[in-house]
Structure formats: C-alpha cells, structure tokens
Design goal:
By secondary structure, the chain is mainly α. About 55% of the residues lie in helices and about 10% in strands. Helix 1 packs across helix 3, helix 1 packs across helix 5 and helix 2 crosses helix 3.
Length: about 140
C-alpha cells in the first residue's frame, strides 16, 4: 500500500474538521461539488490528493477562502514538526479557529470554526464593500 503524504493527510483532517463543524455530511458536500461521498472520504483520509480546482470548489461550498484551508494545513504541519522538538513555549493552537483576511491584510479576524460559514459570508461581504469603496463604486451615507 502506498504511503500517504503528510500534507495530503493534513489537508484531509482540515477538510473533515471544517465539514463536521458546519454539520455538513460527506454526501451533502460531495453532491454540492459534483463528486461522490466516497471521493470526499478519500480526500479526508488523505488517500487521494485534492486538486487545486477541487480545493476551490470545496472551499467555496463551505463558504471559506481556499487559503484559509491551506493555512490550517500549514499550521498543522508546523505543529507536528515542532511537536518532536523540545520547546519552552507550546505552539499556538488554532485547531478550532478559522482565519479570514479582509482587504489585502488590513484586517484579520479569527473565529470559532463552528461559526466559520457565517463569518466567511460576512468576510466576503465586507471585502466587496471595501473594494467598492476603494474603487469609487459605492457611496456611504450617514443616516440618523
């Protein structure tokens, strides 16, 4: 049997955690992105690699930015790498947090993973409003 790459395993764990925290079944996610639940199982176990196009589809369905999932993978791999090294300070634990960057890193928020879908939609909305304001395509009026 082929060895599962640690990055593929980490991506599968991140995907599973995000999906479960949003109370979405493998079948629902698979249907939402046009694949079978068996394929979602293989992604989550790390047995199959998640292509970048599929990553975008899955992230979009979950209401997340693909980079959010990738950062979670990076954090998990970094924690795993440092877990075997002596350290006076434990690595940060962001397993149950999602990070959203708005407007080219001007604002970063971290939210509980179970609320990521809500905040993902809010982050998208705020980003679009900010971009519209920057481009002069929106007007802000103060009402009393």
């Amino acid at each position: 049997m082929a060895r599962i790459d640690p990055v593929d395993r980490a991506m599968g764990q991140v995907l599973r955690h995000a999906r479960k925290s949003m109370k979405i079944s493998q079948s629902e996610l698979g249907h939402g992105v046009g694949i079978t639940f068996q394929q979602i199982q293989k992604y989550e176990s790390g047995a199959n690699r998640l292509s970048i196009s599929r990553l975008f589809a899955v992230a979009t369905y979950l209401g997340l930015e693909p980079v959010t999932l990738i950062r979670q993978v990076q954090d998990g791999i970094a924690r795993e790498a440092t877990a075997h090294q002596p350290s006076t300070m434990p690595p940060p634990n962001r397993d149950d947090m999602m990070e959203f960057r708005l407007s080219d890193q001007e604002l970063t928020i971290q939210v509980p993973l179970e609320e990521a879908a809500l905040y993902g939609g809010l982050a998208t909305l705020l980003t679009r409003v900010h971009e519209a304001l920057q481009n002069g395509n929106a007007i802000v009026e103060r009402r009393e």
